[in-house]
Amino acid sequence: MDDRFYECHGHIMMGGADYASSFDALASCGIGYFRDGGDAGGITAEAKQYVKEHPELGLEYVTPVFAIHRKGRYGGIVGRPYEDFKEFRALVAEAASKGADFIKIMYSGIVTFKEYGELSTPPLDAEEIKELVNIAHGEGFAVMAHCNGRDTILAAIEAGTDSIEHGVFMDEECEAALAESGTIWVPTIAAIAAFCNRPGFDEEIADRTAKALKASVSRASALGAKIASGSDCGAFRVPIGPGCLDEYALLRECGVPSERIAAANELIRGRFRR
Ligand SMILES: [Zn+2]
Q1: Predicted TM-score (pTM) of this structure
Q2: Domains, the chain, ranges and CATH?
């Protein structure tokens, strides 16, 4: 695996192509590991079976099958909703029965790029995050969490979330807490940077957000935080395959040494399996 690239956050069902073509694109980019962020239809369970039947792809593919979000909050694009802990437990059991390798949970909204710092929906509170992580861990699953915003990121780290995805709007307290914790950060810089020059979004705010994220990555890396490469490929203007290679370049631009990226990726690979 050492000579292959790791895509620690992607969506094989997004990006417009069928999954077989997307898997071919990964193979031609030399990608040997792909951790999916989920899809609303749960088709990634089928995609996982396809990878098993095609060893020539040289790919290790893991998926939560579908992501899980609180009803009325962000997440319908990649998963299914719960209203209370009982429903959350039932979704975890269903994901398990469909072959999920880990659980993906949406803690916060997405960055709107309309007002600096604004997120699309309110976040979960710290108590709820803690309980969700406990339930998933109790079933033997690691937790991949979509998470933006200072307070939510601190709550995620405190709850023992295994990986934080995006992690936009960290402050220095977040970066220090991250460096001291076992949580791995997947900043998906490629996906955030893709909003610069996107029609309908404020260019200056997108630029400022991307710059702030890169500065956070540099500071957190200097403190020793575990930062893995995941591009959120399948998302807007992040192609499945090349997006992964772009993310490696962006992390290195931020000063994350290649061997530290590789070590964090390997931690993800070791932890996000059941
Ligand atoms: Zn994603």
Answers
A1: 0.97
A2: 67-229+240-271 (3.20.20.140)
